[in-house]
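TA notes. Do not distribute before section.
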Amino acid sequence: MAQSNEGDIAQRIAPNSNRPLRNKSSRFSTSGKNQKAEIEFVGRSPLLTSILETVEAIAARKCPVVVTGETGVGKEMVARQIHNASDRSEGVFVPVDCTTLTGQLFESQLFGHVRGAFTGAVDTTLGFFRAADGGTIFLDEISEIPLELQAKLLRVLQEGAVTPLGSTKSYPIDIRVLCATNTDLCKMLKEGTFRADLYYRLNVVNLEVPPLRQRKEDILPLAKYFLVNQSTFYDEPPKVLSPTAKKLLLNYAWPGNVRELANAMERAYVLTTGREIQPSVLPFEVIIADSTSYPKHELQTLDEVKRKIITQTLEFTKGRKIAAAKILGIERRSLNRLIDKLDISLAQMKKKAGT
């Protein structure tokens, strides 16, 4: 779900993307004066389609939404899409990383403070909630807010008003609250680490973003999207994945989800000198994850797989160990130890390359 942006979940997890890749498979976009760029989701999986339908159904509502899913699936991108498809799209979208909020800093950053409220408070500040007035606030990793501070957040949500730290004056706010977490809030509820009243206040709609391994139809469209972004960024002709490289991508579990795929495609792009991206420039873990990519009559040992990969990489670099180490993502000393341990002949490779 992604952005062809996110390829389905990729909206611009591609930091170098200057323009969207239009993919007619599944696309949902909105417009708004405050929107910096059109948001699209790239992909063709049924799960992606279901997410887009849910986003479209809830966007016009004011109810809170909790977006759940593993790290890297694109939860913030989904939240931004909800905002941009709503009647608040011309208002601001304020993302807040709750992992950074503790103690006094929690109240100050969320609700603001008046001058002199505490040591170092030399100026009056607005706070995230008042800054988001008329728009949307996105509380990322809501599960990380300490239990003792959850009550203060609940009070603001119930009253629809904020009292800055050190002040007695209350300021009404009109905001929509979207949250995200990769933690099981129900489990935290049972363990007593998350307030039940806050949970039921926030969890009106729960939108789960599935991991990339469950949306294999979206992997190649996403990969293509990221490669196009790279070619646009570097102003170069596009590069394409070889058939074997595509197979490796499809057979990898992608524990880091779309973010990991984006990084893998950036790495593959910059390490490829020609037009076609070969397996040797993919991350090591992607290459070794699929033993079926290599001809065999029986299962190979890990050393056999390592030997094959290192040999292929050294052949690709014509025996240059520094270049091979960079492609493999390891130090040259580690590569030297592996070459000795696995009895890999560099002389034969250099002879083949004519060097």
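Switch to the second chain here.
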Amino acid sequence: MTDNTETIIVDYGMGNLRSVEKALENVGGCPSISGDPEIVRNADRLILPGVGAFGDAMENLKRRGLDDAIRCAVESDKPLLGLCLGLQLLFTRSEEFGSHEGFDLIPGRVLKIDEPGLCVPHVGWNQIEGTRPDPLLEGIPEGSYFYFVHSFYVQPDKPEDIVRWTSYGKRFCSIACHGKVWGAQFHPEKSQEVGKQLLRNFLTIL
């Protein structure tokens, strides 16, 4: 599959942009990295990666005018995929180092992993569970392993926004979706063939 539409990886100064770009190119995509609000607003689809702290990320997005650009794209029915911190930013509020407002594109909260005896951050390969059909998971077997690195997790308000669970001490939401807004807590760009398939699927969503 060769993708001829415009996929923009949002550059707000906090993300593993090049590895995501390379992974998309490897599955036939033609991605661009941009921090220009006008380009982001008019993209065919968006990917919001992220590494770092929630509050700093939202501050960077607002300062660069990218928060409004992303909201405008979503209101125009453009698909959006958040990865790792990018997933968390899609939620209403985070409790990471205080209380911070997110995009509120998926109603819910971001909470700290605090189960006794667990290593934090949660790092390494873990399974996704659940059987809800979703175009993002076409061709990906139930119980597939993806690569995680995170200290916080998302808790959607609405059960119907949970696409997949992962167990680490307790179950947490590892893939969420609300409308055409998706988010994955893991790193598909580091998850070998199943990660490639997930990205390939996203490129087919219009």
